[in-house]
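User: Quick one: structure for sequence A, then sequence B.

Assistant: Sequence A:
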Amino acid sequence: MRRFQTADRVEAQALTNAAAGRVERLEAAIESVIKGKSEAVRLAVVTLIAGGHLLIEDVPGVGKTTLAQALARALDCSFQRIQFTSDLLPSDVIGLSIYNQHSGVFEWKPGPVFANVVLADEINRTTPKTQSALLEA
């Protein structure tokens, strides 16, 4: 196993500083939209970097949707919001194949779950089958 050389350490420190700078700029971009929620912004960014999912629970009107939209906009990512209701079907979430009469083939129409940032609102209000489709996507 080779030992780190001084040049390796300097390069690693430079990469770390560059990444930290990018994260700070991302947080600043989001905080320009969401005021007074720096902890929520930081946790959202950390979750994104870790590749995880974020559950935001709060009272109505405090900026949950705006936070998700600002995060997507700051990263130039696609954003979709899914409002879960009792009549929402699994195909409304994941998409479906539609037959094209002109070409004679089925064409895949992806649902909103294929966006880079997805806000799933009121998941508890939909059927277990639709919840399962969301979790499996």
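Sequence B:
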Amino acid sequence: MAKVAKSLELSNIVALKADICAPLPILDSSVDVVFIATVLHIFNLRKMGPSIFSEVFRMLKPGGCLAIVECKKEEQSFGPPKHMRNAPDEVEAVVISCGFRKIGYIDLGYNYMIQFASAKKSTPLTL
């Protein structure tokens, strides 16, 4: 991602490799979009979700967007086992409890994307 951003001369995109369960080295209210893709199945969402999404909320600007892509909670020939996957309503419940509101849902076939806003001014991402 960092190489693509650099090749396109996009100076406002930062790819950061970090521990999602720890405070991140990012200023409060300084990020427009946080994109989390196919990693939440690794964690106990009820236990770790509040700390993860509270940290995301802290970093996002007013009107900022959180986009989460996860595998649907169904048997598939690839990806994590069904028992490790999170259904959309499970993800929504935890994220909304951290101060977000849902602004969009997109069915991506084997996956889904849910979009959340940290303030009232957000609009859904378009694909």
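The two ends are 17 Å apart (CA to CA). The chain is about 25% helix and 25% strand.

User: Thanks, that's what I needed.
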